[in-house]
């Protein structure tokens, strides 16, 4: 477990993990042990602060943290869950400076310190719990640490003491040690680092990744799920193979699932009691130099059982034991005649042992090994021995130099799709000899015309040539794999409509030129549409329905047989529509006009009534609201007139 400061809340939940996990695992196995280890980081700058105060307490404020350390084996594997709770409960959080942690150092020590950890010969699980990334090989240079990790145990008093001396291990180094010690790894990490550890899982066989909650409250269920996932898969691995030896796997899994190559190494979704089988082929492509036997081991990951295979190489033919020493066939007894060839005695060379080694380097012999007008001996592909070229052997035994001057080979021919002669021929003296139905310098041109066959049974629709299994359309209007696509062309029916019309009914646009332009097909008349050929016959068939110049429909079929002959079957009587009945049409038109007029009058009348009613209502409303006042009427004149006598009240002067 990562005990850096960010894992403080996680530690509280792990303190009670022992007994709870024991109870859960008892449901799966009767023999279960649990241990605990913790890690932080290398105890050098810049991974931690090396000031005396920070070495005593790397946390800030009032936090009480333990001194930083690289890896500590807190509790070796035990069956006492209470002891786990007790010791883990005494652990304290520590701290470091950078975000990635030194977890790889911890994994390496857990893997190689089997005696201190207490590993037994049973299923071994390592649960790696953290909320951060990891340092790996090369990162130690930041702290001045350049020595590669030695992959050995360095625990003293349960503490890793060489973190300041050895670099972090590489991923490949971890994979090797985990595999050697049959340890299956479960990465319990937070959601933030899921992607990183899933990539790491792909590099470490027999490992799993689970999502750890922010406070590790789900760690028990995570371990159970990961254990079930790991135990339901079998993956085979083999030890390092000798030079020239290859191995292939084929798996026979549940429900008839079979795989080969890399997937042939494993079977998934299996449970206790299921039987799966693997077929393994071991091939020796060359003999070992010293002829000694070799051993390879094959085992399922996570298990200690293994199969040991002792390889005994057969490097000599059986016929060699029947050889004739000092045979006359080998130039007067200068060699042993075996397996149809001479094996020369010491000091003799040549195909028939006809030369001595003293003659090998003579210039006269070299002249026989040069091609005319060439200075190269054996085309630089062999040695001149006894006036004859002995061609070089290549690492790939399937690649051979040949010819009198070693001028030929079977691997320098033209290639197609990465294969010599496209895989469709044999390379002889740098020239491809193609299999039947193939041609070209790289045998990449197929003579098979089936890919060029159009839907009408014609090669390239009769509008192109088939070249190397591909249509080369000669008519620029047509395109497509079989020259059947034409964006500007009429269909079959429209194309032949005029010719069928002129030949069958003696009318249409081509009536005058019918005998010159329309004799390219055979025509047969039938009585009705039912008598026309129907789909299902061998020749491609098109059913057509077209209009003639009199607006009558006529029906015909068009087909092309295997000989390329066009055949037309036409119904002898066109279907002409009957003329219209004038009286009902006129009556209908008149009735429609009358009805529309009445409807318009009714609508107009209705609108007028609505309008009048609105106006009358408005008038009534204004009438009710009117208040007549004479003083306010500008045209009102009072009927009363007042006149004053000017002499009224005066005394008479008389």
Automatic annotation (TrEMBL):
Keywords: Calcium, Cell adhesion, Cell junction, Cell membrane, Cell projection, Disulfide bond, EGF-like domain, Glycoprotein, Integrin, Magnesium, Membrane, Metal-binding, Myogenesis, Phosphoprotein, Receptor, Repeat, Signal, Transmembrane, Transmembrane helix. Pfam families: EGF_2, EGF_integrin, I-EGF_1, Integrin_b_cyt, Integrin_B_tail, Integrin_beta. One of its GO terms (cellular component) is cell surface. It is a single-pass type I membrane protein. The keyword Cell membrane applies. InterPro entries: EGF_extracell, EGF_integrin_1, EGF_integrin_2, Integrin_bsu, Integrin_bsu_cyt_dom, Integrin_bsu_tail, Integrin_bsu_tail_dom_sf, Integrin_bsu_VWA. The keyword Glycoprotein applies. The chain crosses the membrane at residues 582-604. One of its GO terms (molecular function) is laminin binding. One of its GO terms (biological process) is cell-cell adhesion. Residues 605-651 form the Integrin beta subunit cytoplasmic domain. Residues 493-581 form the Integrin beta subunit tail domain. Residues 1-317 form the Integrin beta subunit VWA domain. It is found in: Cell membrane; Cell projection, Invadopodium membrane; Cell projection, Lamellipodium; Cell projection, Ruffle membrane. Belongs to the integrin beta chain family. PANTHER family: INTEGRIN BETA SUBUNIT, INTEGRIN BETA-1. This is Integrin beta.
